[in-house]
Structure formats: C-alpha cells, structure tokens
Design a protein that fits this description.
Layout (H helix, E strand, L loop, with lengths): L1 H29 L4 H11 L5 E6 L5 E6 L4 E6 L4 E6 L4 E5 L5 E6 L7 E4 L3 H15 L19
Antiparallel strand pairs: 1-2, 2-3, 3-4, 5-6, 6-7
Length: 155
C-alpha cells in the first residue's frame, strides 16, 4: 500500500513539473507578440515618446515602433528583459532581405542590435522600411546654404 501512495505522489510531481515547463516554454515562445506588454515596456523606457503604431517581427522577438513625430523605435526580447532603442535620424542602414519579407538593419548607434528581421508579409516589411526612411530624412541639416534644396524638402 505504501509503495502505491509513493508512486501516485511521484506521478503527481512529474505531472506538475511537466505543466510548469510547458508554461515556461510557451512564455518564451510568445516573445513580444503581446502588444500591450510592448507598449508598457517602451513607455517605461521612453516616457516622453507617444507611440503611434507597432509592428512585430514574425517570430515576435522584435517590435518596431512608429512614434508620433515621425521618429522610430525598436524593442528586442533579450530573454530576461526587453532592450528598447530610440533610433536617431540618419543612424540606421536598411536593406531588403533575400526573402522580400524582411529587412537587414544596421543600427549605427547600437551595433549589438543589428540583425535580419523577418516579418509575416512583404507589406509589413515595407511599412517598417518607410518608417525608418521617414526617420532618416526627418530633419534637413541646418548648416546647408539657403539656396540648397535637400531631399527632405523636394516633396
């Protein structure tokens, strides 16, 4: 009788361990797919920036943030915390990936954040590229002569 009780207790412990590891794995897989969490984390890092739109990568490990004044931001899941980065105008290089659904991005101010970011569709990828392009030409240089027309003023 005692061995049956111990076997049942052992089975219950194994069951709870299995459930706990599955929940932890699911939490890891979710990444930044929870946009509410992304808004809170980015707002905590940059409380004076107004978020206009979010776009997550296909795997949910990164989110690009469009801010109110045509600036852009970036968040990456670093397993135990989220790295938030405000992209300064002109401090990012963007190239389309081989798949057409992604971007290869070099952050000049934060090279450790560089990477290949795949999105669910080419439309989402191009949307983020436009945000970054808008950020890139957001403000013309003040040192230019008055008769010089910059690319940002040609529209």
């Amino acid at each position: 009788m005692g061995i049956i009780v111990w076997c049942v207790l052992f089975a219950i412990v194994i069951f709870f361990a299995f459930v706990a590891t599955r929940l932890a794995a699911q939490n890891n897989e979710d990444g930044l797919h929870d946009t509410g969490l992304a808004i809170i984390e980015f707002g905590r890092a940059f409380p004076n920036e107004a978020i206009r739109q979010l776009q997550a990568t296909e795997n949910g490990q990164a989110i690009f943030v469009r801010l109110h004044d045509n600036k852009a931001g970036f968040m990456r899941n670093m397993s135990r915390h989220f790295a938030c980065h405000l992209i300064e105008p002109g401090r990012v290089r963007v190239v389309s990936s081989q798949t057409g659904r992604g971007l290869v991005i070099d952050f000049l101010d934060a090279p450790h954040q560089n990477g290949d970011f795949e999105f669910a569709s080419a439309k989402e990828s191009s949307e983020v590229a436009l945000w970054l392009l808008g950020n890139y030409i957001a403000e013309p240089d003040k040192d230019l002569p008055s008769n010089h027309i910059s690319a940002a003023n040609k529209h």
